[in-house]
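note to self: dont lose this again. the chain is below, predicted strucutre after it. 318 aa total, dont forget to put it in the shared folder this time
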Amino acid sequence: MPRHADFLPHGVIPAVLLPFHDDLSIDEQAFREHLRDVASTEGISAISINAHSTEVASCTFDEQRRVLEIAQEEVGDKLPLVHGVYADGSLEAARLARMADKGGASALLVFPPAPLARGQYPEMAITHFTHIADACELPLIAFQYGLTTGLAYSADTLLRLCDEVPAVRAIKDSSNSVTHHEWNIRTLQSLPRPVTVLTTHSAWLLSSLVLGCGGVLSGSGSVIHELQARLFHAVQAKDLAEAQRLNDLIYPTARVFYDTPATDMHNRMKEALVLMGKLPRATVRPPLVALGKAEIGRIRAALIEAGLLGDAGPRSAA
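---
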């Protein structure tokens, strides 16, 4: 059973990073320290693991189970854990769901299976989610990809998912379209059984939040978790002046983290934590590769501009 059995996805949910040793094995000690750092932030509602930010595509089933075990040991008594389900086949997705449920996760973030990119229809998504829902008793978060990826669910598919798979209680919205994002917020959060929209539009977070999102689920929360929590609660309180002030601090990191190519976003976040003295190294697993000195310099400059790093070393968020 999950440690937080009544959790429904909402609020600020940082997606943490996964540190590696130079030999590409998991650095468990650094991961534990990272988890404790993020979990100590006031105003967050959960932590996400085994997702893009933890390089889940490069992690085995057993490694994902170990990541969950470590997260439970370090922060599971304090915060719910959202566990990713990243699999191209529905049977493997169901196996991951059972493992996460047994391991104490409180919700699942379901990635769309790659075959959908070749052309999909609603029954494919519904079948995939049904296999997962039948394998566990956890609320599901549907990852809504960008509309140009081929993996995004149509409006009709989203509505059918929400209706036919009652376990779907939220979406992680990465549609990257203001029009579609607002439709998701207005429509899904107003259903008879509301489905919360968790934004991951961290490159334009303030603009996204003011549309009425029910939360944030973002990899950049691994670095700016305090700023994200403060911004979310400022918007909820309709304190525009404070929200704008916080957004000005977030903007430099958003600009550098979400630069092209997008595949390097979490590499950049690792380098940021190294610069801040919060990770010992920024090792990534192939096919990802290390960043060059020029880009690391840009990250350093962004952290200084955001008030997260001084010339003499790290400092707290303003």
